[in-house]
Structures are given as C-alpha cells and as structure tokens.
Amino acid sequence: MKICTAFSLHMIREARSIEVLGGKDRADMFEKFTDRARLVVVLAQQEATARNDDHLGTEHFLLALVREPDGIPAKTFEALNISYENVREQVNALAGNEKSGITGELPITKHVKKLLGLSLHEAKELGHDLVDTEHLLLGLLRGSEGIASKAFKRLGTTPNRIRQELIRLWSGNSGESQTGS
C-alpha cells in the first residue's frame, strides 16, 4: 500500500495539532519527535482503530512504519521485499482478529512503552536531538517482545538484517533525518 506525499503532509499537520496518544504527559514526550515520527504514532493509532483492537501495540507501530512512505524504515522494508500487505497478514495471524469495539483513548502496551523509551535512547546514542522514524524502527528492533518481534521471524527476516539494511539506506540519506518532513 503506497500513500501519496500529499496524504502524508496532511497527516503531519494533523499529528502536530492533536495530543498524540492522549493526555498531557504523553503529548509532552512527543515534543522530541520529528513530524514524521509523530505521523507514525498517528498511523499506529489508525491501525489499531482499523483492527478494532483494545490497545496500541508494537504491531501497530510496525504497520505504521511500513505504511509511512517517506521515511527510511519504509524504504528498508521495501528493499527487503516486505510489503505492508505481508506485514498486515502476519500481524493478523499473530494477533487474531478480535474485535473489541473500544472507543476513546487506546491504552498502550508495556512493549510500546519500552519501544518509545528505546527510541529516545537510540536518538541520544546517535547524537540526535529528535526521534525520527529510523529511531522508532531501531527501538522496535531492540525489543524482543511483542507481536512485532514475532512478525519479523514470520516475515523471514531478523532484526539484525533489518538493522543492517536500515543503516545502509540511512547512511546514503544522512542529511534527510532530523528534518521532520
């Protein structure tokens, strides 16, 4: 599934104008996120809502990272021949199709809390002031729990292989990160 850049720009504006994940404390955390990283959070929420899940999990972030067309993570998955449809199929197989009918704010799983913390850590370790989509993917790859971690195995790849491809692509686009769009 490809999403046009105009859609991405609209979603970035939406991500700037809302309190992502709800609540003031959570919104404050995302001040350290680029526009693209905020867009991934919004897309993850949309993925959870579309599946009628009762939580926001790592699987939703994985789907969002593959779906966001302008970030290096999406290009990484494309280079590895991993499509949005492939990821969605594996997430559905792992998570099932339970329909919760929950309305309102979705609680985040402990794995997402860990993912967000690891993403901040990755950005700091690399000397970056802001968390971008690459840091979100690196955080997701470092987490060994959650549905996303299991999906990597089912997709026929490893976190290490994805990390290598991400770094290869990232090094070719070093000026693109941290711009937020």
Write the topology of this structure.
Blueprint: H1 5-17, H2 24-29, H3 35-50, H4 58-67, H5 72-79, H6 84-95, H7 110-125, H8 133-142, H9 147-154, H10 159-172
Helix pairs in contact: 1-3, 3-4, 4-6, 4-8, 4-9, 5-10, 6-9, 7-8, 8-10
Find the count of extended strands (DSSP E, 2+ residues). 0
Distance between the termini: 20 Å
Name the CATH architecture.
Orthogonal Bundle
CATH homology superfamily: Clp, N-terminal domain
Radius of gyration: 15 Å
Fraction in beta strands:
under 5%
Structural class label: mainly alpha
Task: Describe this protein with a few key phrases.
single chain, disordered C terminus, Double Clp-N motif, mainly alpha, 181 residues, globular
What can you tell me about this protein's structure?
By secondary structure, the protein is mainly alpha-helical. The protein has a single domain, classed as Double Clp-N motif. Helix content is 62%, strand content 0%. It has ten helices and no strands. It has helices at residues 5-17, 24-29, 35-50, 58-67, 72-79, 84-95, 110-125, 133-142, 147-154, 159-172. The relative contact order is 0.16.
